[in-house]
Amino acid sequence: MTAETDHSHYSARYTYSARNLWTGFLFGLGLVAFIDETVFHQLLHWHHFYDKSTTDIGLVSDGLFHAFSWFATIGSSFMFADLRRRDALWLTRWWGGVLLGGGAFQLYDGIIQHKLMQIHQIRYNVDILPYDLIWNLTAAAMIAIGIILLIRTRSELAGRGDSNER
């Protein structure tokens, strides 16, 4: 990179830093919701998004949940493409957002929806503790790694970094 291109690159990173984070966050949220709905709802038939009513209501709730996850994933993909077009994509920051968004969704699902609201469980008629531990610890690990990546990118931006990675 030339000095002028280098300055422009860091200027774009600074200007679009928050957009990289939120684009990744929305993509991670949508992706993890999409995987949850596809694997646990459709393929394994372990539960529906809303299990407090009939199977028909559960299927409708799954459809709405699937539409939400698809909208979040596709919408964030357009935002990702816009960042690339502007030469403002910062992959490390974006991945931090992906992990933070995916982990936040999964932890919200595991604590709020499974335990507090009790609208569904991961599985029924089994010892649920191992499932809950794996679900919530995986979410916490994704959040922790995402935060580490975001702190690293903030430090890199503050120190103008040594990396040319986008």
Architecture overview:
With 166 residues, this protein is mainly α. It has five helices and no strands. The protein has helices spanning 3-15, 17-43, 55-85, 91-116, 129-158. Helix 2 runs antiparallel to helix 3, helix 2 (17-43) crosses helix 4 and helix 4 runs antiparallel to helix 5. The radius of gyration is 19 Å and the shape is elongated. The relative contact order is 0.17.
Residue runs with pLDDT of under 50 for 5 or more positions: 161-166
Provide the structure class: mainly alpha
Tell me the span between the first and last alpha carbons: 12 Å
Count of DSSP H/I helices: 5
Number of strands: 0
Mean pLDDT: 89
Instruction: Report the order of strands and helices.
Output: HHHHH
Strand content: under 5%
Sheet bearing the most strands, described? none
What is the oligomeric state here?
A: single chain
Q: Kindly provide the radius of gyration, computed on alpha-carbon positions and rounded to a whole number of angstroms.
A: 19 Å
Helix content: over 70%
Gross morphology is: elongated
Strand and helix layout:
Layout: H1 3-15, H2 17-43, H3 55-85, H4 91-116, H5 129-158
Summarize the structure.
The chain is mainly alpha-helical and 166 residues long. It has helices spanning 3-15, 17-43, 55-85, 91-116, 129-158.
Question: What would the keywords be for this entry?
Answer:
single chain, 166 residues, mainly alpha, elongated, disordered C terminus
